[in-house]
């Protein structure tokens, strides 16, 4: 066992939540060490919507909000949500576009928010991680330890003094050492090792939906998004072309159904979430889908689109909140962010909720430590627990509500998700029915996929159903961000 280090707060997990907490503790002059098993941050964009309250917290962190405003994409590229069948001006290609900022005044590409000094932002998590890390390296009271895995803890109480002794290991060298801290904070994500160590279990919806997530780069598609216009009829009955460049695209196409996020139009950086209804998504043939995905995007655009798939993975969308974020046995171990709550991405509540967890905990830990434990630790953590659980449950319910709101449009045109399930099972178990020699031929697998989508094609060509969708979008029965 290596050298024992000493700090006031040990934070496990260097995502936006853990690094926000470390930044805040530094402002309160509280010594902290933050560790993460990874040696570098993932370049894959995930959460991207930053709420007013989170931006206010970043404003408190040496005006970090101003850097985000400066670095993010111009508002014109992310102010909208669009429903479409094709990235094309063909009949029923664009079903409708909703401008989330139509009620706000804008000046020089920025909108004015009368409710807060800090407006919302669209800045993806991979970029936010790097920005927070840059600030963290300049913090006097924060020590960073990348490539360090948290392995477990021991709680020690002697002569009225209580401490948490954590066991850690360097990822590359297997060097083991310990860190002694007054408090241990688990901000290490949905698969939190700290949560497992204190035997906390989630409650709620374990699986609202299974999704296939694909991160891809395509400047061709970015150009299509930038140039695509929607025809509308103004109050004078004149046909007018309006932009449709959006943050979210809900794609309802005979070849592809999913929600696509435009993270960076200059780089052509996209993520698409495709629903999987099969009960066994772990059997899903990722290589097969990676093979056919470029052709599916090309079909949606009605032109050849060059793209590069950066990552492809299945993901289980949950809606769960712990019944306690604090370890009651020690009152020295706390969980934040996805370690304490797992929310659907609909509405952008998850990361923001975790950032706000950090502020509530930071000032309480500073209050306890600066007063040399003369205040009631249990009382402070209990108040934190009550407040944050209420917020988490509220956000979780809103996320679920948003998720079901997003299904109004597919439901309106009668999309039967059982067809997707049947198609998925057929592909996953194709080897039981089709000789391996035939399966090796990609055109055969392409045919199986197209066969499963055939009925969708008929539904989406129904003009009455398409008109119904347009009406629903006009009355704003779409996803609400805030």
What does this structure look like?
- With 482 residues, the chain is of the alpha+beta class.
- It folds into two domains: 4-48 and 124-202 and 322-404, FAD/NAD(P)-binding domain (3-Layer(bba) Sandwich); 208-317 and 414-479, D-Amino Acid Oxidase, Chain A, domain 2, CATH 3.30.9.
- It has 15 helices and 21 strands.
- It has helices spanning 16-27, 52-60, 64-71, 125-136, 193-197, 219-227, 286-301, 350-370, 377-405, 408-412, 417-428, 430-433, 436-439, 442-460, 463-474, and strands at residues 4-12, 32-36, 49-50, 80-84, 94-99, 106-107, 110-111, 121-122, 142-146, 148-158, 161-170, 176-186, 203-217, 229-233, 239-243, 248-252, 257-264, 269-276, 308-321, 333-335, 341-342.
- It has an eight-stranded mixed β-sheet.
- Helix 8 runs antiparallel to helix 9 and helix 11 (417-428) runs antiparallel to helix 14 (442-460).
- The longest helix is centred in the C-terminal third of the chain and has 29 residues, at 377-405.
- The N and C termini lie far apart (49 Å).
- The model is unreliable at 278-282 and 437-455 (pLDDT under 50).
- Residues 6-394 form the FAD-binding domain.
- One of its GO terms (cellular component) is mitochondrion.
